[in-house]
Amino acid sequence: MNIELGPHERLDDLVLDGMKVIQRDDQFCFSLDTVLLAHFGAVPHGPALDLGTGTAAIPLILTARGAKTLTAVEFNPVMADIARRNVALNGRDDRITIVEGDYRR
Q1: Per-residue confidence at 11, pLDDT binned at 50, 70, 90?
Q2: Closest of 58, 52, 67, 61 to residue 99, by C-alpha
Q3: Beta partners for 50?
Q4: Which of 11, 20, 46, 90 is deepest in the core (most CB within 10 A)?
Q5: What are phi and psi of 94, to 5 degrees?
Q6: Residues facing residue 70 across a β-bridge
Q7: Residue 98 per-residue DSSP state
Q8: No. of H helices and E strands in the chain?
Q9: Sheet arrangement for strand 96-100
Q10: Could you give the domains of the chain?
């Protein structure tokens, strides 16, 4: 797997379904709290929405748990780009859609 990383970027192992996640040391990075939250509730059977997705870790984990259709909204253009790349990197383009913008609109 040949992945181009930009400045401040690293590739972390999600330790689930062989998934990897690009993160930046100068932006939001997911933590154990994110992983626990994604495992806390029931898996959505219909479409679901993740507001402020950051790296898209929660949607990625939810697809590993069986979720089929997720939309993830991110205001920060840097993080929206990382989220899109993470979804593509892990082959989840068919189940996760990243929307860049303000979820209040």
Answers
A1: very high
A2: 52
A3: 72
A4: 90
A5: -80, -10
A6: 48, 96
A7: E
A8: 3, 5
A9: 48-51, 70-74, 96-100
A10: 9-100 (3.40.50.150)
**pTM across the whole model:** 0.93
**pLDDT tens by residue, 73-83:** 999 999 999 99
**Residue 36 or residue 100, greater confidence:** 100
Alpha helices, DSSP H, located in 1-105: 32-40, 57-64, 77-89
pLDDT value, residue 3? 84
- List of residues 6+ apart from 17 with CB closer than 8 A: 64, 90
Q: What is the dihedral of CA 78, 1, 12, 27, to 10 degrees?
A: -10
CA dist 22 to 48, 61, 68, 86, Å? 23, 14, 22, 6
How many Cβ atoms from other residues are within 10 Å of residue 62's Cβ? 23
Residues 55/29, Cβ–Cβ less than 8 Å = yes
pLDDT at 1: 61
pLDDT of residue 2: 72
Cβ-count burial of 78 within 10 angstroms (0-12 exposed, 13-18 middle, 19+ buried)? middle
Tokens of 57: 């870790």
